[in-house]
What does this fold into?
Amino acid sequence: MKLLSNGGIRMSAMRIRMGVGVTAALTLLSMSSAVLAAPFLGVNYGPYHRDGEAPGTPVSDEQFSSDLRILSQKFTYIKTYGDDAQSRLDQVVPIAATEFPNLKIYQGVFENGAYNSNANTTYLDTAIKLANEYPNIVAVVVGNEDLDTDANPNPITPTQLIADVQYVRTRLTTSKAQVTTGLGFAAAGKYGAQIAPYVDSLMINIYPFYGQVRVEDGEDNLISQCINFNNQFKSFGKPVIVGETGWPSDGFNNGAAAPSIENEQIFTDAVIAGLAKTGSTFLFEGFDEPWLKVQNSWGPHWGLWNSDSTPKFTFSLIRGQRDEPFRER
It folds into this structure.
């Protein structure tokens, strides 16, 4: 379970382990109509990692600049979770465009029953304005884990999510920005086929840690899930992107899944090494966020960097993993 970095709580449904062999799964992927060329590795960014910060806390330009400088040394693709003015999240894209023009942003939009095109369009309208003005936004991510299959206290319906995706799409004046949504694992299985015709990609959150597998089996589990979803949605011709995956560095054991810095590094290295098999993937997350202790023992410990911005371990990305755009063959 995880929490939202913008405007409220973001919780994931329980991830279910599925037993598909990797060899067979790779065969399925090779048959899929949505084969990925040159997949990239990105990172999710929640800015609330300094003392006392939480959603609603104004984040300074200095902190955004510092965070983006660190992330840009490893990643080209960054995904955010919101654009609310109260926390100043609407400043991430302008600062990135000015100071780090190489960064490509998947701009997140907070969604629940109170914030969507059927109620309050503020967040949707902000994302549209940013995408139309700044070419560093390559996609607008309308909501994350906001359906009734997710542990969301105020979910929206798939029908409303589709309406919100269409609300954004019809108001974009740029052809460069795609439109997608972040689906929880269970939501992808239940509602993915309903949503697929309306999005440019199927972005799905997949956590072997929540499948209670050993870290040594994490890569095989992730690959198997990616192949399952690619096969499930191949008729739509839409790319499948892993919107979130990661391994916490601290907290209680979750079955055979044991949190530690060593295991986080093992899983991170495996994701990097297996990128050609999983397709484009966003790691969760950039920095440890202490406020996420309201979630569970793992909540504050998913970052690649500690909350003080020091790295937990070293990892390397080759150019293609950082810079190549996401394409279909």
